[in-house]
Design a protein that fits this description.
This protein is mostly beta strands. It is built from two helices and 19 strands. 4% of the residues lie in helices and 54% in strands. The strands form two sheets. The protein has a 17-stranded parallel beta sheet that branches.
Length: 340
């Protein structure tokens, strides 16, 4: 259905306070469920086409009345399985699990046009015990993005994304990141394991995004056994990224970014090894890099400039090209982040 008049309109999520595109309500997702238990969406690799071009044009021309729908969305549900399906042309997100627990997504293919605006593949959002594996995702913006609410709304709702496993995935993100954390992370993101991922033809590989006013945390995140090919920036951590839902955010709500481990990673034809930009008020801490080998392309800066850092502290071992001073400034036992 391309006519927005045929789409039901629903209230914004309480942890966001507004739609992702516009203030106010949002169009209901094509496949959706609320407070469901033991639900399975599966098929013999059948295809669901979200016909997103209509919505992308509306977004680009600023003619949307409400925020775009997602292709699949489950809210406040438990024991959700999505498998053996191909999803094409999502208007915004392909699969959005929000306030859910025990979500299993596997053998899924999700594709949109590289020009599609801010389309994201799989979005675990204020959800726990999530497993994503054996899937191929090719998106206009981010392939997989972990979130947990936006500024004061996410802080108040206080539902983190936690205990997430991502493995054996093939990811491509034309204008965003193949794996991203945030920037809407005000409820917190923790205890995430990413391994055995192939990242290719992406603007950035792994990104951590946040900004002042978010609050929340991103901690206890382990990323390993990653193969990157044709990636702009391999690792990105930005403490001044994103906008605010309204003027009600607390400018003194600083996010915690700590205990991030990136190891056993190889890259080919990489433009920039890493950019880690924390903030003076809340530096990124305990970032551990080890066994990383990136082959830079001919357009990349000199080795001395292939990493750029400020307000970040960490340690490194066996990393090529050699990281910035801030990421080899101390040696410490890794441990766990101090509880908030």
């Amino acid at each position: 259905m391309k006519d927005p008049l045929h789409w039901e309109v629903v209230d914004p999520l309480p942890s966001y306070g507004r739609g992702i595109d516009l203030p106010g309500k949002r169009y209901m997702s094509l496949i959706n469920g609320y407070m469901l238990h033991d639900v399975v969406v599966t098929g013999d690799n059948g295809t669901i086409d979200g016909q997103g071009l209509f919505w992308w044009d509306r977004f680009n021309s600023r003619s949307l009345k409400y925020s775009r729908p997602h292709l699949v969305e489950f809210v406040s549900s438990e024991n959700v399985v999505v498998s053996n399906l191909t999803f094409l042309n999502a208007p915004a997100y392909t699969i959005h699990s929000v306030y859910c627990s025990h979500v299993y997504i596997h053998k899924v293919t999700a594709n949109t046009s590289p020009e599609s605006p801010y389309t994201i593949g799989i979005v675990p959002d204020s959800s726990n015990n999530v497993c994503i594996q054996d899937s191929s995702i090719n998106m206009g913006y981010d392939a997989i993005s972990l979130k947990s609410g936006w500024d004061e709304y996410g802080i108040s709702y206080a539902r983190p994304t936690a205990n997430v496993q991502i493995q054996n995935v093939y990811l491509q993100a034309a204008s965003g990141s193949s794996i991203s954390f945030g920037s809407e992370m005000s409820g917190g993101i923790s205890d995430v394991v990413v391994r055995d991922a192939y990242i290719h033809n992406s603007l950035s590989g792994v990104a951590f995004r946040t900004t002042k006013g978010r609050g929340g945390y991103m901690k206890e995140i382990d990323v390993s056994n990653i193969n990157m090919v044709n990636v702009g920036t391999a690792f990105l951590a930005n403490g001044s990224f994103g906008t605010h839902p309204d003027s009600g955010f607390d400018a003194n709500a600083y996010p915690l970014v700590s205990h991030i481990r990136l190891h056993d990673i190889v890259g080919e034809n990489i433009s920039v090894a890493g950019e880690f930009f924390g903030t003076k008020e809340s530096p990124f801490t305990s970032v551990l890099l080890s066994n990383i080998s990136l082959s830079m392309n001919s357009d990349s800066p000199d080795d001395d400039d292939s990493w750029q850092c400020s307000y970040v502290e960490g340690s490194s071992e066996s990393v090529v090209p050699e990281p910035c001073f801030e990421l080899k400034s101390f040696e410490s036992s890794y441990g766990r982040a101090v509880a908030l």
